[in-house]
Design brief:
single chain; 227 residues; Ubiquitin-like (UB roll); four-stranded mixed sheet; two-stranded antiparallel ribbon; 8 helices; amino-acid biosynthesis
Length: 227
């Protein structure tokens, strides 16, 4: 594919380009994601779809962990050169839920989404929980504990984090390994709910820990003052 495509986009005006992925054979719309200039360049060079994750704030190759790669066969810019259409051959499925397409929640009629066809094991548990939390933002608070917390707002979410942190501390003090693990899981879960409510992906916490790794306490403190 030609590099002319890259040069026709005004990246200064919009550093992230919306991208629609469509099955090249069936025409089914599979997903919508975003590319920065590097992601589009890699896509054109390799023939495999690369995107930029706004939640993780990093580049990612579609299917890198799950094996569900997207082989790009055709690429089209729209009339304003600010949206990209990819026609792809999809290995496996496009959606992290295990469905072929991310567009399965019908809104013009009441319809229960079909169950996922494939269970994807490659995603980490924190990634799975984060996506579920995002989905629960639109769920009925009466039918979901996470939805009820999100519906109540920051005070209820953060109260649970403080409560679970206290229970974790007491479990550590008592020295019961099973209770420590149980309460740590509760604490981490409610921390993920708090992060999800602010649209902060847990991978960003991992990145921050990686940044600090190998730094002395003094160096880490100084790095905070520089921001």
């Amino acid at each position: 594919m030609s590099s002319t495509l890259l040069n026709s986009i005004n990246w200064d005006a919009s550093p992230l380009l919306p991208v629609i992925a469509q099955d090249v054979t069936s025409g089914e719309v599979l997903m919508l994601a975003y590319m920065n200039q590097e992601a589009l360049a890699l896509t054109l060079q390799t023939g495999l779809a690369h995107y930029y994750s706004r939640s993780r704030q990093s580049l990612w190759k579609k299917g890198e962990t799950s094996g569900h790669l997207q082989h790009v066969k055709e690429a089209y810019l729209d009339c304003d050169s600010d949206t990209l259409l990819l026609k792809v051959v999809q290995e496996g499925v496009a959606c992290h839920t295990g469905r072929m397409s991310c567009f399965f929640n019908r809104v013009d009629v009441d319809e229960t989404p079909k169950e996922p066809e494939i269970k994807i094991e490659a995603y980490s548990i924190t990634d799975k929980i984060y996506h579920i939390i995002q989905e629960r933002k639109h769920a009925d608070p009466k039918s979901s504990y996470v939805a009820s917390l999100l519906h109540k707002g920051d005070n209820s979410i953060l109260k649970k984090v403080v409560e679970e942190a206290g229970e974790f501390c007491f479990a550590c003090k008592d020295g019961d390994s099973k209770e420590i693990i149980y309460e740590a899981a509760d604490l981490m879960f409610h921390a993920l709910v708090a992060l999800g409510s602010k649209n902060i992906h847990p991978s960003l916490i991992s990145k921050e820990l990686e940044r600090r790794f190998g730094l002395s306490g003094i160096e880490e403190k100084n790095s905070r003052n520089e921001h």
